[in-house]
Amino acid sequence: MAASGYISAANLNCLLGARHMSNPKLGSADARISLSFGGSDSMGVNVRPASIRAPKRNHFSPLRVVCVDYPRPELENTVNFVEAAYLSSTFRASPRPLEPLKVVIAGAGLAGLSTAKYLADAGHKPILLEARDVLGGKVAAWKDEDGDWYETGLHIFFGAYPNVQNLFGELGINDRLQWKEHSMIFAMPNKPGEFSRFDFLEVLPSPLNGIWAILRNNEMLTWPEKVKFAIGLLPAMLGGQAYVEAQDGLSVKEWMIKQGVPDRVTDEVFIAMSKALNFINPDELSMQCILIALNRFLQEKHGSKMAFLDGNPPERLCMPIVDHIQSLGGEVHLSSRIKKIELNDDGTVKSFLLSNGKVMEGDAYVFATPVDILKLLLPDNWKGIPYFQRLDKLVGVPVINVHIWFDRKLKNTYDHLLFSRSPLLSVYADMSVTCKEYYDPNRSMLELVFAPAEEWISRSDEDIIAATMSELAKLFPDEISADQSKAKILKYHVVKTPRSVYKTVPNCEPCRPIQRSPIEGFYLAGDYTKQKYLASMEGAVLSGKLCAQAIVQDCEVLAGRGQKRMAQTSVV
């Protein structure tokens, strides 16, 4: 079912007002922007919440887009969605505290925003601090001088993300997800410019729709390979979650060899899947990660169905969460860098010291930053505690996100996420087609995930763009050439994240911490903490809910600590 030169049918019927697009000379300073975030650059300086209001658009005319996407799938009747909805309801239904806890949270990515949102729902007062001047953490985005957005990563919202889907519903923004046809589309390296599809029939329940999609695709796997792969998967199907968790000690490649699965199955399918899930290759990725994804995709009818956000994440997703938090009395401060975690004599947290000298005190404290930043700021007194020692195994993986604006509309693409199957690239999408806010009828903007990025993170933007163009020439042989003799680059942005999601290598599962630390009053949130969705947006949101749940459960103890602190302050 290979397709070439085809834009996915009936997904878009769009009209757009004239859109400003600059055409700077490639190579000039304003034609490229590179960002690099590492170390403690995710913590920052306090400003008033008003400073986080969304910036105005910088276009000659207002954006007017009417898109016809696929209907939102029926997710509400799945077990995982119901469980997620129930957990959300417990915060709204919890007894109102006589005195709300003041909870200071470091990091306004999805984990920190989720923690703050659900604490506010439970009647407490979160004080959310973000180092940078933009919301979102790993879903942050920036607007350039032409009014075009560029993002930290290419973010896909799956049907198998029950807590994320509940969050959208609770905020009343379900309509901001643009659902695509239920397919997975892979480029064919041996047939440049062609694609192979796995199409999930809507009329079939799970797992039959997934089995049908695999059986119908004869271009990537032969029948003997499908049979051997199915036999290899039988233990996972029969053993359930216990079996899945037990595979954490094996890499994807090791597991495939152990189960007698042909190497071509890994080459054809799981290199692309591994890079999409964790930005690394199958010889490094824990098989547990793959099995969790397969389990969700095969056990839930709409689990593998994908949606794009209809615009930039800070405004379209993060700001509604901030508005909700502030409406319930919480606070959100940008540019609020944590310099030091100050301790009491008993080793508990006394305060967060900001880089501008301001001191933030609370009844409880949460670190919702990437694990690498937590390790940088971990107090010496805590480093010998096993709970924190185990964090040494958890290390963020480097990733590069590339945006290229071309001088023409590319034809050989889809209104969907595409698996490049390139040795240098992971997934990509023509955002001028898939996203309402980024829609452009005349020019394409490709957003691409450059992974694995370990050997490239320190390379120049020019090197990265040159390598990307060489790979794109294989995906668009009739439209793109490495020397730009065909489609011309108008501009590009390269966003480097030296430490992104934690690297899901074998045997790191036991090192993932629960949200309640052994330090009374100190909690963790983040996709690296213990929850069943690993390193993902869903994992980040769920970790925030679990963190908020732990704090609500500890409310009486934390309130007592607060009263003791107030009494000591009064005596002084």
UniProtKB/TrEMBL annotation:
Gene Ontology biological-process annotations: carotenoid biosynthetic process
Recorded name of the encoding gene: LOC106778315
Localization in the cell: Plastid, Chloroplast; Plastid, Chromoplast; Membrane
Protein keywords: Carotenoid biosynthesis, Chloroplast, Chromoplast, Membrane, Oxidoreductase, Plastid
A cellular-component GO term for this protein: membrane
Name of this chain's protein: Phytoene dehydrogenase
Superkingdom assignment: Eukaryota
Annotated catalysed reactions: 2 a plastoquinone + 15-cis-phytoene = 9,9',15-tri-cis-zeta-carotene + 2 a plastoquinol
Domain Amine oxidase: 110-551
Pathway this chain belongs to: Carotenoid biosynthesis; lycopene biosynthesis
UniProt similarity note: Belongs to the carotenoid/retinoid oxidoreductase family.
InterPro entries: Amino_oxidase, FAD/NAD-bd_sf, Phytoene_desaturase, Zeta_carotene_desat/Oxidored
High-level lineage: Eukaryota, Viridiplantae, Streptophyta, Embryophyta, Tracheophyta
MF term (GO), any: phytoene dehydrogenase activity
Cofactors (names): FAD
Enzyme class at the top of the EC tree: oxidoreductase
EC number: 1.3.5.5
